[in-house]
């Protein structure tokens, strides 16, 4: 097996679209045994899967792939060509993905996990330089894209805010983009205007990634959100097809939910409840696009009503910086997702997500901190997933994904087992 057994098994379950329970039954093993094979190598509970099981799983997956090949038009060629934007290796919108291509990207993200977990290092991007151009506030996107590039062996040059870029002197997007292309091998751009990153992308042939364009899209966030949902569901023994997703908060200006609902719509039979204060509802054109796939979409301004029976609660911050005359400051108190509400409306299997940052100032009523030591709160696992997913994006756009597996070496330092003081291993977590 050229990949780790964890990557191999997760990929097999995704391709076969089976929960852990059903997959264990399909290959004739106990669920507990499967759980131990799925743990990261090196963890105390982890066990090696017998060769005979690996051969059987390979056979089932190959049969499934053959069936797919004959039943639909075969996907071929490198992933970066299949997700290309106007013929270029750029990532501007989740519209570039199909369910197959997004799952192929996640297979690569799984292979990046040992690097993200600081067990392995790779130098596949040695010599390459990333230009991080952030014209809006950011912690996660800027640093995790930078760290992802560095962890693949590349280096990063940053510019933050308009003040410290020559755009403050009136330089155009075209000139800025063309000049930067002479200096770096890829760019990640965040800008307050919707459509601006596409304008940067038109002025260059190097890979450009949209790190958030105004109230438009945030595709890498949606990819890591979907990756998180699939990973958490795998642990919980659930499938995404048929799930109930509640999107909460500022759905009008929140670009993460704009990208996420379109990406989730690639799956089957979902129920979305969109819970927004009056005036901050999801834009019509996005509703229309997601609705084309035949999902159930319900809109409400009652949190309690909308959260009932949800499998995923995805809370968001009020995007006050984008308001055009709206009066709302924070959310009112009855709009806050907190432990009492989650206990009342949802089961023990719900996952609570948020793209972060959450606004912790008084009166903002953003996602409550009283869920912090509740295992259903997935926000930090979600943020951590930014690294493997963004590494996968770079590997694909720069065409090195096939080199990663053989480039891995052990790290020379020892990171702490739990990176946060409040982190714990939850049962079956991988
Ligand atoms: N960080 C996310 C974004 O930039 C969400 C937020 O800021 O509320 O879109
Ligand atoms: N989630 C997210 O985009 O965070 P930042 O705004 O801190 O980059």
What labels describe this entry?
Rossmann fold; binds aspartic acid; 39% helix; alpha/beta; 17 helices
In short:
This protein is an alpha/beta fold.
Report what the structure shows.
With 430 residues, the protein is α/β, with parallel strands linked by helices. Among the domains are: 1-75, no CATH class; 220-319 and 327-383, 3-Layer(aba) Sandwich (Rossmann fold), CATH 3.40.50. The protein has 17 helices and 11 strands. Helix 1 runs parallel beside helix 4 (51-71) and helix 8 crosses helix 9. The two termini are 20 Å apart. Mean pLDDT is 93; it is low at 426-430. It binds aspartic acid and phosphoric acid mono(formamide)ester. Aspartic acid (ASP) binds at residues 212, 218, 255-256, 317, 355.
Q: Any chance you could write out the topology, listing elements then pairs?
A:
Layout: H1 5-16, H2 20-27, H3 31-38, H4 51-71, H5 79-82, H6 99-116, E1 120-121, E2 129-134, H7 140-151, E3 155-160, H8 173-181, E4 186-191, H9 196-202, E5 208-213, H10 219-236, E6 244-248, H11 255-264, E7 271-275, H12 284-291, E8 296-300, H13 303-307, E9 312-315, H14 339-345, E10 351-353, H15 379-384, H16 386-397, H17 404-407, E11 409-410
Helix pairs in contact: 1-4, 1-6, 6-16, 7-16, 8-9, 10-11, 10-16
The structure holds aspartic acid and phosphoric acid mono(formamide)ester.
């Amino acid at each position: 097996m050229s990949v780790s057994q964890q990557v191999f098994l997760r990929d097999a379950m995704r391709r076969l679209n089976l929960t852990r329970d059903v997959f264990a039954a399909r290959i004739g093993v106990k669920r507990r045994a499967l759980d131990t094979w799925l743990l990261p190598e090196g963890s105390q509970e982890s066990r090696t899967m017998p060769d005979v099981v690996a051969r059987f799983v390979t056979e089932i997956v190959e049969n499934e792939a053959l069936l797919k090949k004959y039943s639909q038009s075969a996907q071929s060629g490198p992933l970066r060509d299949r997700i290309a934007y106007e013929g270029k290796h750029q990532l501007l919108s989740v519209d570039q993905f199909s369910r197959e291509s997004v799952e192929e990207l996640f297979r690569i993200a799984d292979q990046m996990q040992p690097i993200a977990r600081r067990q392995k290092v790779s130098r596949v991007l040695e010599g390459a330089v990333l230009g991080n151009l952030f014209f809006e506030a950011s912690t996660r996107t800027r640093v995790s894209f930078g760290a992802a590039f560095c962890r693949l062996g590349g280096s990063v040059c940053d510019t933050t805010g308009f003040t410290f870029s020559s755009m403050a002197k009136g330089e155009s997007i075209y000139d800025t983009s063309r000049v930067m292309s002479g200096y770096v091998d890829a760019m990640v751009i965040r800008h307050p205007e919707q459509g601006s990153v596409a304008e940067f992308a038109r002025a260059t042939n190097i890979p450009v990634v949209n790190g958030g364009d105004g109230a438009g899209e945030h595709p890498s966030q949606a990819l890591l959100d979907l990756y998180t949902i699939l990973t958490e569901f795998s642990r919980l023994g659930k499938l995404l097809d048929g799930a109930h997703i509640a999107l909460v908060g500022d759905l009008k200006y929140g670009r993460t939910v704009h990208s996420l609902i379109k990406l989730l719509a690639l799956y089957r039979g979902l129920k979305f409840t969109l819970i927004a204060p009056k005036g901050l509802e999801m834009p019509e054109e996005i509703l229309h696009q997601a609705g084309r796939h035949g999902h159930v979409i319900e809109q409400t301004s009652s949190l309690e009503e909308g959260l009932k029976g949800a499998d995923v609660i995805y809370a968001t911050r009020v995007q006050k910086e984008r308001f055009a005359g709206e009066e709302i400051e924070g959310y009112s108190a009855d709009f806050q997702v907190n432990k009492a509400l989650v206990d009342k409306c949802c089961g023990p299997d719900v996952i609570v997500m948020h793209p972060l940052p959450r606004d912790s100032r008084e009166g903002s009523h953003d996602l409550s901190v009283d869920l912090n030591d509740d295992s259903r709160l997935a926000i930090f696992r979600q943020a951590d997933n930014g690294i493997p997913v963004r590494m996968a994006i770079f590997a694909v756009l720069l065409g090195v994904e096939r080199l990663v597996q053989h480039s891995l070496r052990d790290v020379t330092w020892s990171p702490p087992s739990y990176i946060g003081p409040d982190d714990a291993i939850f049962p079956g977590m991988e």
